[in-house]
Amino acid sequence: MTDSEIIIEVLHGDRNSFGLLVEKYQSLVFRTCMGFLHDKDDCDDLTQDIFIQAYQSLKGFKGESAFSTWIYRIAVNASLNRVRKNSGNPILNRLDSLFGSGKEKETPLGVFEMENPENILIREEHRRWIQTALNGLPENQRTAIILSKYDDFSQKEIAEIMQTTEGAVEALLQRAKANLRLKLSPSSKKKGRTP
Predict the structure, then answer these.
(1) Fewest CB atoms within 10 Å of the CB: 60, 96, 106, 123?
(2) 3-state SS, one letter per residue, for 70-124
(3) Span 3-135: which CATH code?
(4) Where along the chain do its domains lie?
(5) What is the rounded (10 degree) CA torsion for 70, 72, 76, 78?
(6) Residue 159 near residue 140, CB atoms below 8 Å
(7) Which among 69, 25, 13 is positioned nearest to 51, based on CA atoms?
(8) What percent of the chain has pLDDT over 90?
(9) 136-188 has which CATH code?
(10) Cα Rg for the chain, rounded, in angstroms?
(11) What is the value of pTM for the model shown?
(12) Averaged pLDDT for residues 66-82
């Protein structure tokens, strides 16, 4: 069944058919959320919220774009709203989960026992540095780079999701890459600037 056929079934009262859309797009929506939030538990919750919102709004889906574009637009907006709401807390939440704030650790203990603790700390510091730099980008640049790098969308697909032109997306990606290079440069770290 195509997405359009599934949507027609759902709108005619077959609620179970919506599960087909969830199965098809769940991992991609989750990856999009991870690009913004960097926390598995938050992304699991947000992904579920996104599909609930999509289900509740399905009557408003006009079919002017593909369902995939529509659901990604919802995912991007929901992710940006969560980032605004948390105002920088995703990284703190990630640190809490790593160093024990009552949350279960994401990595099994056996992996930590086999790996050098110094390497783990270096890797986590590098990951936080990148996440901070990414979170420091303007929203439109961050959205474009996440859709490009995390979800491997083409510029045309990103333009549809962001409701802009391919040229605008290309410019956003170039500016995002330049800003990330600047934020992640060794001179930025030496000067004590936070990315």
Answers:
(1) 60
(2) HHHHHHHHHHHHHHHHHCCHHHHHHHHHHHCCCCCCCCCHHHHHHCCHHHHHHHH
(3) 1.10.1740.10
(4) 3-135, 136-188
(5) 70
(6) no
(7) 25
(8) 43
(9) 1.10.10.10
(10) 19
(11) 0.66
(12) 92
